[in-house]
Specification:
The chain is mainly alpha-helical and 544 residues long. Helices cover 68% and strands 1% of the residues.
């Protein structure tokens, strides 16, 4: 067949692939290989068509039969992708050849690799084939449950090419790195000058605890329209203000700040524009649970189960709904189903533990948290929640051990210091407790939201124990500014005034507390005591 006719047939195959007509592509690619006497480029096109048509074994056989897997790195990579699809992980790793990677994710390729192909010069921006291979090796090791080696290969993929987003996604979403490790990895990536926007966006995807003060400036820069007056080095290139990914990052930031209403409103607007944006769905569901939006949780769970019955997020949503209505047995069942469908879905493991903890089943709760701690080594939350369970059961030594472990992973999460303060208070180490609780308030973003009201109250209780009554009263008043209808805070504020001998003011606050919670027997007793003391106090002659 003449070259012109062969080229025409090649264009037909390419067109079939672009239109997703894979059976047609396979049919014509098979004939093309015969007509061209097994030309290398046509064999590659045929193998691609087989891969896209899900005929993975046939594609591998084709490449092996024509001895192409050793001829070109592209063929080896395609064969390995086919083996990945049929879950032949050991064969997949063997197919990818001899690579070595150090603990920092630096790759050393064997000398027989196709270096000429790797250094291909083109005007178009392409993902480095080394990055794709490193990513595939990472997925294979992760499937074999060798997460330490998977971590190295994902780092290697990202270092080989910062545009290999899948590697970045695996590292961040699977919590494979701690806060500091994430920052160090990002700083080691070699972005081009025009890729500043990508560097900023990656930075916004990292854990938020260390970025509370700087992340808003990054959001502002990504939102800003291009300005020609800014130097090329500082210019992001374009505005991502309406980009769903950036909006999802902002919602995650609001959630970490305790601004659950703002987080919920942000994700709700995003999901109205893009109802199937699954990446922001976990944070939307978590914010809805915090706000008690039961109807929204029910509707979201119903729709997700209908649309994505094989995805973990659907059953996680069902579990969130049952958590919100306090049916913890049902919640456990659906969180368990979510973890079965996707063992690397961190929110489901945490929810699974919470559902047990809510019914005081500490052993099962800690089993779920420990599994999460083993799977997500860069996430401090499982260790923190294990510590909280030990604290709840009054095992203070083990609680302290896990709090310190959580602190090593994430030294800037205010919740860790709050729990350490609570533990010190329970140990009657009130000076230590006050230190940790003050540190908690320093780490919380300003303005403080009502989510942190318990921390303010805890500090006020501690200061009262230390007899710093004036400071304790100030803290109680701050707590009331956050939650004006907290009966226990009014009672505690009254008790502090009572201890100072200000019985008339104490009586006023006791009355306010009982107005909000009439069945509080302790406050009623304290009110009676204050009234008796006030009646026994001698009258001031000037008031007669």
């Amino acid at each position: 067949m003449r070259e012109k006719e062969l080229e025409r047939l090649r264009s037909v195959v390419r067109d079939c692939l672009s239109k997703h007509l894979y059976s047609s592509a396979i049919f014509f690619a098979d004939k093309l290989v015969t007509f061209s006497a097994n030309a290398t480029q046509d064999l590659y096109m045929h193998a691609q068509a087989l891969y896209l048509g899900k005929q993975y074994r046939r594609a591998v056989h084709l490449l092996k039969r024509h001895h192409l897997v050793s001829a070109d790195l592209r063929f080896r990579y395609l064969a390995a992708r086919c083996l990945e699809e049929v879950k032949e992980w050991d064969e997949c790793l063997a197919m990818l050849g001899d690579f070595d990677v150090d603990e920092h994710g630096n790759v050393q390729m064997a000398e027989d690799q196709d270096a000429e192909y790797l250094e291909k010069d083109t005007d178009e921006r392409e993902i480095n084939i080394t990055a794709a291979i490193c990513l595939l090796r990472g997925r294979a090791f992760e499937a074999l449950e060798n997460r330490a080696r998977a971590l190295r290969w994902y780092q290697a993929a990202l270092k080989s090419d910062p545009y290999c987003y899948e590697a970045f996604e695996r590292l961040v979403e699977n919590h494979m790195l701690s806060n500091n490790e994430e920052v160090n990895l990002l700083s080691s990536l070699k972005f081009d000058q025009e890729d500043r926007w990508l560097s900023l966006l990656y930075s916004c995807h990292l854990k938020k605890y260390d970025q509370m003060k700087s992340i808003e400036s990054k959001f502002a820069e990504l939102d800003r329209e291009p300005n020609n007056s800014i130097s090329d080095e500082d210019r992001t290139g374009c505005s991502l203000k309406e980009n769903p990914d950036l909006i999802s990052c902002k919602a995650d930031y609001y959630y970490h700040c305790g601004e659950f209403q703002k987080c919920y409103e942000t994700t709700k607007l995003l999901l109205e524009k893009d109802p199937y944006h699954l990446k922001c769905m976990p944070i939307h569901l978590e914010a809805a649970v915090e706000l008690g939006r039961k109807n929204d949780l029910f509707l979201k769970a119903h729709n997700l189960v209908q649309e994505y019955p094989q995805k973990a997020i659907a059953w996680f949503a069902v579990g969130c709904y049952y958590i919100s209505i306090c049916q913890f047995d049902h919640a456990r069942r659906y969180f368990c189903k979510a973890t079965t469908l996707d063992g690397a879905f961190a929110p489901a493991w945490i929810g699974f533990g919470h559902a047990y903890a809510a019914q005081d089943e500490s052993d099962q709760a800690m089993a779920a948290y420990r599994t999460a701690a083993r799977l997500f080594t860069g996430c401090h939350l499982p260790a923190l929640f294990i510590g909280m369970e030990y604290l709840r059961t009054n095992n203070l030594n083990l609680a302290e051990h896990f709090f310190m472990q959580a602190r090593r992973i994430c030294p800037t999460d205010p919740l860790i210091f709050n729990e350490m303060g609570v533990m010190a208070h329970r140990n009657k180490e009130y000076e230590v407790a006050a230190h940790w609780l003050r540190k908690t308030l320093l780490l919380i973003p300003v303005p403080i939201t009502d989510a942190w009201e318990p921390t303010v109250v805890n500090l006020a209780h501690t200061l009262r124990k230390l007899m710093y009554y004036a400071e304790a009263i100030t803290m109680y008043e701050k707590a009331l500014a956050l939650c004006p209808k907290a009966a226990s805070t009014y009672a505690a504020l009254g008790f502090t005034h009572h201890l100072q001998g200000n019985t008339s003011i104490a009586i006023e606050f006791y009355h306010k507390a009982l107005g909000l919670k009439p069945d509080d027997t302790l406050t009623a007793e304290m009110l009676s005591s204050a009234l008796v003391e006030e009646c026994r106090r001698p009258s001031n002659p000037r008031d007669i």
